[in-house]
Amino acid sequence: MDRRCNRRDFLRQSSTIGAGLALANLGNIVGATETDSNTAQKLSDDKTLRIGFVGIGVRGSCLLKILLELEGVQVRALCDIREDRVTRAQRWVEEAGQKIPSGYSKSDTDFKRMCETEDLDLVITATPWQWHVPVCVSAMEAGKHAATEVPAAVTLDECWQLVETAEKHGKHCMMLENYCYFRKAMTILNMIRKGLFGELLHCEGRTQENWIRENWHIFNSDGTMGWLGEHLAKRNGNPYPTHGFGPMAIWANVNRGDRLDHLVSMSSKSRALKLHAEQSFGKDHAVAQQAYLQGDANITLIRSVNGVTFTLYFGGQSPQPWSPEHKVQGTLGTCIGELFDYDARADGWIQAKVYEKGSRWANYTNYAETYDHSLWKALGQKANKYRAWDWSGAYDYLMLYQLVNALRRNNTPPMDVYDAATWSAISELSERSVANKSSVQEVPDFTKGKWKNNAPTDLAQV
Length: 462
Hints:
six-stranded parallel β-sheet, Dihydrodipicolinate Reductase, domain 2, alpha/beta, nine-stranded mixed β-sheet, 17 strands
């Protein structure tokens, strides 16, 4: 039986959104390997990207400050449910030498008024997860490109909504997955493209967070449930897959010569959230009496059409240090270790291991200089300046640099709406699998067959 699933069959089986199909084409990703990008349309001196920004909390503030450092950017509008955040961000824009942008803070959905009113090229959202799709859809329907924090969508319905809206209106929608820009991730990409590991067979990635210890939106200080806590109480799978999967998807050319075929998922029991609630507010408190579905650990196994396998780990509740561990296995070699470049807490460089020949592991540093990616060679020194702003500042700079300059050149961003949908779809698919004793779940082809001819992602655009 043909196990591939087109949109119409998938939606009929899943009882999700209607079967209307947009036929507009966004075009293929440009570039195939680490080459220069002189084929791109040259910038004109007066080409300015006009940006509206939605969600100016901790994460949004970091991204906004880096945007203000980029050439050819004009922040024209700011939106947040808190007026004081809008006022603070307006001051930052003015201090950067730009005109004070318009502010929107009248309601939870004031971003719609911003998209309909303002003359913008791009709308970026760094809101809680449930608002990512509404903001992106509003932007694209109003003729603007969109970019969103991760995950791009929570449900399969939302994944299809992003794809169909982008196709209907001919607009780009990029998910801001900064793990793809870790220096090690890009060095490994270069090693793969140079054939060091041979034919790719298997990848592993993990999102090991420490959300409880970091008090990251699970419980509010007044004892109410935070927006992330609401997700973890009701869902059980991998709710946050893209950090672990994004680099692997780039390495394996997912949606560009290969595509995901099916997955299975399994979760452990849930303990950490309830224990944390009891310790923080007492056993009789409402959040301590709440039932939490999300298992403390989740493992999802994925297989592609071309036979590449992926193991994706998630753990965000039980106490542990943040750990972006990854593995690449090919017919000629293997690399395993942390993707993060420098950890000041450990006072040193985090090591990874590479196996290429012989019978012993070699140190990753033996390969780092030779296979350092051209984007880091060109912009790494400047990018590292932003580590002082936030631990992810260097990666955010490279990510936003490529997004901004792709749109200024009328090029496709390095990660497109099909990536946003495919990577985010792992969430609901894993939940369905967990709920049905780790049943096999088919991954829909959001590209509708275009993956067969799409060229590999070009992260070398400078």
